[in-house]
């Protein structure tokens, strides 16, 4: 008899971020608590990190870094020990990334970028961006930080901060950012329900329009050449396998709901194989083959939109968070 692979945890709080660090999952709670879950534990460890809502969480070699509504950044180990790293004073801090080369956390603080060192000391990059930063991404091939803003994106040097930013222009409001894994392309999501792409070798750019809702999540396939997003009735797959990227091509769409009101809210590509976990506005969750577009049901619709999905690094455990604050762990070893 197959063991039930799904373990739900009713955390009863809005979940503003979900990330794995080895075999530990962290869920950032809207009441200031970081919930730590492991597949072999029946009860999450609730760590009261802050008296303000946690806006996001990222993994670092030391554990988990969180940013809260009051502008503070905390570091929490996988065992649940928490320390205050820095207080940026920037309200509603929700964009932080980890710069591994210098072991720094980088925060988007309005029109500025704040650097938090491992010892808690802080500094600001000397550049003022044209508007409030919408998203950030670290280049996978060099010490550069991309930031989005109104009118495009800018690339900032992290090794020589006196260098002027490189502006990648496009009218409109740019939000989330992702680099292609080979570092050759930068992609932004836009308030205007589109994604914009820049080829960094020469600045050539493309825009992919026609999304029925705003794009909030990117996920790269394990082949490192194919990008999927939410924001539509299914997951469009954009190929970056050639120098032209997706120019002149149509996206192949996975697991299209076929229902105008049912859209993809969250997705996560499997870290090792040709699969994608996809969650919808009605709570439906599917595991879809990316090659043949065949899906198996993970969760029935439950009227609770899927907000976050995250795979463990080994691809054996999947976590998803619904809008009602329930986080479910799926152990694929139990299906074998």
Rounded mean pLDDT score: 95
Over all CA atoms, what is the radius of gyration?
A: 19 Å
Number of helices: 0
Q: Low-confidence parts lasting 5 or more residues at pLDDT below 50?
A: none
CATH class of one domain: Mainly Beta
Tell me how many strands there are. Answer: 30
Order of helices and strands: EEEEEEEEEEEEEEEEEEEEEEEEEEEEEE
> Based on the structure, what is the oligomeric state of the protein chains?
single chain
Name of the CATH superfamily of one domain: YVTN repeat-like/Quinoprotein amine dehydrogenase
Task: Give the amount of beta strand, in percent.
Answer: over 45%
Order of neighbouring strands in the sheet with most strands: 14-15-16-17-18-19
Structural class: mainly beta
Straight-line N-to-C gap: 11 Å
The major beta sheet can be summarized as: 6 strands, antiparallel
CATH architectural name of one domain: 7 Propeller
Range of helix content: under 10%
Shape verdict? globular
Topology-level CATH name of one domain: Methylamine Dehydrogenase, Chain H
